[in-house]
Amino acid sequence: MDLPKFLLADNSNFPEDVFVLHTEFPRFLINLKDDEIEWFEDLTGENEEDIATELADLMNKAGEFYDEEMKQLD
Questions:
Q1: Do 27 and 41 form a contact (C-beta atoms < 8 A)?
Q2: What is the pLDDT of residue 14?
Q3: What's the whole-model pTM score?
Q4: Mean pLDDT by 10 residues, the chain (74 residues)
């Protein structure tokens, strides 16, 4: 099955929160309300400089994905 790179997620227990799930390596869930991230991968042993740059880019892309999805709902 082909999955989209990003998915929107919500939960009725957290009505004020907006989550974006990244489905490719490194998989993570980001709460856009406070930028808290839950990682689903063990990133130990990765080059810290490379992974930090990639992760910052992915977090920006997650925010951009959300913004584009919201524009389509208007």
A1: yes
A2: 95
A3: 0.84
A4: 94 95 93 92 78 87 94 87
Separation between Cα atoms, residue 41 and residue 72, nearest integer Å: 31
Q: Residue 23 has which token pair?
A: 């489905």
State how far the alpha carbon of 53 is from the alpha carbons of 5, 32, 46, 56, 59, in Å: 18, 19, 12, 5, 10
d(Cα 58, Cα 68) in Å, to the nearest integer?
Answer: 15
pLDDT of residue 55: 85
Sheet holding 36-39, edge to edge: 6-9, 19-22, 28-31, 36-39
Residue 28: exposure state from Cβ atoms within 10 A (0-12, 13-18, ≥19)? buried
Coil/strand/helix, residue 9:
strand
The ranges assigned to domains in the chain are 6-73
Q: Which two tokens stand for residue 74?
A: 């208007």
